[in-house]
């Protein structure tokens, strides 16, 4: 089976001389695409000094095109060892090294590979000792991983292991899109500490670039970067930050390009995380939230746009801290569309005891709101500020805080809106997304503006091809 049998045997003899503890065997290996091959592999320990001396167990699979192709390398931890995910090791124990990426015969050899492996492990130890309780849970997981690497699958075992894994990694967030906003979201969510794991799904072509590469280099704990939709499986929240970079000529073409992009994303995300909350940050957020709702077939409560959450938080801050306004800022909201058509509104109608006092209070509140809006208009929305807002929303969802946020939600039935459009409205957020919409104060002018926004959004959506 091996195309270069003599070269392979010669190299393995050299390995055996240097590391006589290694044992050799033939087993079936299953590749990521499901294909299988009988491959030569060897297992043993390599000596690593990390303060103390450790023997790190590894397993190397030799491809049939060896030595012109690099081996596939795994850690082989015992039941009392846990895997330290880092720059060179993933959660399944697969080993990634520059030596493997730059493999070139005859310069590259298995002996050279093992030497680099030892050097990298001495910088960052890949295993740690488990407590007895953790070791018991790890035992079955390692058994399943061993079956994967040996080409055997047991779906019943997989289901149980996945269940245990999900219990331990309870709050998982996936961020789709590795642009500036996607990376800002990852950093903000990680800093907030709400998630046990954050997956950055990089859908760009080619190798990792820019910020994604930096995330890989500095290896934030509990952050995984992947190009595979399966990495998003069982996410509690999926944040969509992607925008098409096509050569569209008109505004409608730009949006249609985003719709086409979402047609390839939403079904895959929905397949791997059927109970997730979709949190849409792509532009225009109202339309793309509507598109996500239609493509996912999720209930309206679990499809949310980031909407005016950032503007509302700023608005309330300006009222309280900059203008020192004598109004309850917690009842002040920015609603409607993102951009120039956003509208200030209120959720507390108990202004005063009588009509005259109520009118005076309303006029005073309107004046201070107009001043706050002037200040707000001068604030741009940078990626990091939107990322902080998204981290705030995910924190409310994952921790079931039942906090009120102004987010894009299905507005049909509110303010006499009869079309299926998404607008920012004050909503109570929890584990399953929108729990309840908070009633706005009756204001004919606000209702008129919301209805106008709804009409223009509906007209735009009717021109899109879903």
TrEMBL record:
TM region positions: none
Gene Ontology biological process terms in this record: lactate metabolic process; protein transport
Entry-linked InterPro entries: L-lactate/malate_DH (IPR001557), Lactate/malate_DH_C (IPR022383), Lactate/malate_DH_N (IPR001236), Lactate_DH/Glyco_Ohase_4_C (IPR015955), NAD(P)-bd_dom_sf (IPR036291), UBQ-conjugating_enzyme/RWD (IPR016135), UEV_N (IPR008883)
GO molecular function, one term: L-lactate dehydrogenase (NAD+) activity
Reaction it catalyzes: (S)-lactate + NAD(+) = pyruvate + NADH + H(+)
Domain UEV: 1-131
Role this protein plays: Interconverts simultaneously and stereospecifically pyruvate and lactate with concomitant interconversion of NADH and NAD(+).
Name of this chain's protein: UEVLD enzyme
């Amino acid at each position: 089976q091996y195309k270069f049998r003599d070269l392979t045997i010669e190299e393995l003899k050299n390995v055996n001389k240097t590391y006589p503890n290694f044992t050799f065997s033939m087993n079936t290996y299953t590749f990521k695409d499901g294909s299988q091959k009988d491959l030569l592999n060897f297992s043993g320990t390599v000596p690593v000094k990390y303060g103390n001396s450790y023997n790190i167990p590894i397993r190397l699979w030799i491809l049939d095109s060896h030595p012109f192709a690099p081996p596939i390398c795994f850690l082989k931890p015992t039941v009392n060892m846990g895997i330290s995910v880092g720059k060179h090791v993933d959660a399944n124990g697969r080993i990634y090294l520059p030596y493997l990426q730059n493999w070139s015969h005859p310069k590259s050899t298995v002996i050279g590979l093992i030497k680099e492996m030892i050097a990298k492990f001495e910088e960052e130890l890949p295993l740690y000792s488990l407590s007895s309780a953790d070791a018991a849970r790890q035992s079955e997981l390692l058994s399943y991983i061993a079956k994967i690497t040996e080409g055997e699958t047991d779906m019943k075992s997989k289901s149980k292991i996945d269940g245990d894994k999900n219990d331990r990694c309870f709050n998982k967030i996936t961020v789709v899109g590795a642009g500036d906003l996607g990376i800002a979201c990852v950093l903000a969510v990680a800093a907030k500490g709400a998630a046990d794991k954050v997956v950055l799904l990089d859908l760009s072509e080619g190798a990792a670039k820019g910020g994604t590469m930096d995330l890989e280099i500095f290896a934030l704990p509990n952050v995984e970067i992947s190009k595979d939709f399966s990495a998003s499986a069982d996410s509690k929240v999926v944040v969509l930050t992607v925008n098409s970079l096509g050569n569209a000529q008109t505004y409608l073409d730009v949006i249609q390009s985003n719709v086409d992009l979402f047609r390839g994303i939403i079904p895959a995300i929905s397949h791997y995380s059927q109970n997730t909350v979709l949190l849409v940050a792509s532009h225009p957020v109202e339309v793309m939230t509507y598109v996500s709702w239609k493509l996912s077939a999720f209930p309206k409560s679990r499809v949310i746009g980031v909407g005016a959450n950032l503007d509302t938080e700023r608005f309330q801050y300006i009222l309280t801290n900059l203008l020192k306004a004598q109004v309850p800022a917690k009842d002040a909201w920015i609603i409607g569309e993102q951009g120039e058509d956003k509208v200030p509104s209120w959720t507390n109608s108990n202004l005063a005891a009588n009509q005259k006092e109520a009118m005076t209070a309303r006029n005073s509140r309107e004046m201070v709101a107009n001043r706050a809006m002037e200040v707000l208009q001068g604030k741009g929305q940078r990626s990091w500020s939107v990322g902080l807002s998204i981290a705030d929303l995910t924190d409310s969802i994952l921790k079931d805080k039942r906090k009120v946020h102004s987010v894009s939600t299905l507005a049909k039935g509110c303010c006499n809106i009869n079309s299926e459009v998404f607008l920012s409205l004050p909503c109570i957020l929890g584990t399953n997304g929108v729990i309840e919409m908070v009633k706005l104060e009756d204001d004919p002018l606000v209702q008129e503006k919301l209805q106008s926004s709804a009409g223009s959004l509906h007209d735009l959506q009717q021109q899109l091809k879903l």
